[in-house]
Specification:
- By secondary structure, the protein is mostly helical.
- It has one domain.
- The chain contains 13 helices and no strands.
- α2 packs across α11, α10 packs antiparallel against α11 and α11 crosses α12.
């Protein structure tokens, strides 16, 4: 257990300071439990600390004042009393939703990576039979390798030759660790609550950009892509969405003259 925590902390520091090497190591080791822990910490802690900042009277009261929404003077006290229940609901729903959303996003990125993987690399599968080379060696009169080789050694050697289709779990874990910077929103939200200065918006944008960079590195290191190809795979879903939206807009604009004639 001590080694487990030490390795966990080493991975955390590695993601923050040496992301390329650390994320490649994490993807290879496929530490699913640690990845889920990081997902919970990076998803729940900023929301809980940020909600305390949102419930601050200086921020919330102007939105429920008589000048803006007449008749809502009692909303703020009601929200204050309901805060423990709201936080509990956030925690319960986050435990269920955060891993599911991360799984779906990782699956989409992994599918994009499979399409972007070169045909030669995708079609090259390891030879796991272990019989043909030895038979060929016997026919050629060569020395047959020692059959008393440790089976675990053979398994370890073959595990480094896995095809690209086995990278999904590694990508899931490495991209989960890449969300680690969002935990830094906790001290930012606490500082905003204490000082009354809203630092959350700018800090959230900067930290999310950091997460995007780390997740692109995760894709690159997991699949051995170039940075450009990894970026394309990561943004495949929004790019496809934008393309579909543009096609729909063009089609609607093309139909405008016909619709106007009918009217």
């Amino acid at each position: 257990m001590k080694d487990w925590f030490k390795d966990f902390l080493d991975d955390i520091s590695g993601v923050l300071f040496t992301p390329s090497a650390a994320l490649k190591k994490i993807a290879g080791e496929k530490k699913v439990l640690q990845a889920v822990i990081i997902l919970f910490l990076s998803g729940l802690l900023p929301d809980i600390s940020g909600y305390r900042h949102t419930m601050n009277e200086n921020i919330l009261r102007p939105f429920v004042s008589r000048d803006i929404f007449p008749g809502l003077d009692g909303v703020y006290p009601a929200l204050t009393r309901a805060m423990p229940y709201i936080v509990a609901f956030m925690i319960i729903s986050g435990i269920l939703i955060i891993p599911m959303l991360h799984f779906i996003f990782t699956a989409v990125v992994e599918l994009a990576c499979q399409f972007l993987t070169p045909d030669k690399a995708r079609n090259t599968l390891p030879d796991t039979s272990g019989d043909v080379p030895e038979q060929n060696a016997v026919n050629a009169g060569e020395t047959v390798p020692d059959s008393n080789v440790n089976p675990m050694t053979q398994i370890q050697v073959r595990s480094h030759e896995l095809p690209a289709s086995t990278t999904g779990v590694g990508l899931f874990t490495s991209m989960a660790f890449a969300t680690l910077p969002m935990i830094l929103m906790v001290p930012v939200n606490l500082l905003s609550t204490l000082t009354g200065i809203n630092l959350s918006l700018l800090s959230s944008i900067l930290l999310r950009l950091w997460v995007v960079v780390l997740q692109v590195i995760s894709v690159r290191e997991t699949h051995g892509f170039t940075t450009g190809r990894a970026t394309l795979a990561y943004f495949a879903l929004p790019l496809v969405g934008i393309a579909v939206a543009l096609v729909m807009i063009i089609m609607l604009l093309a139909l405008v003259p016909f619709i106007s004639d009918l009217l």
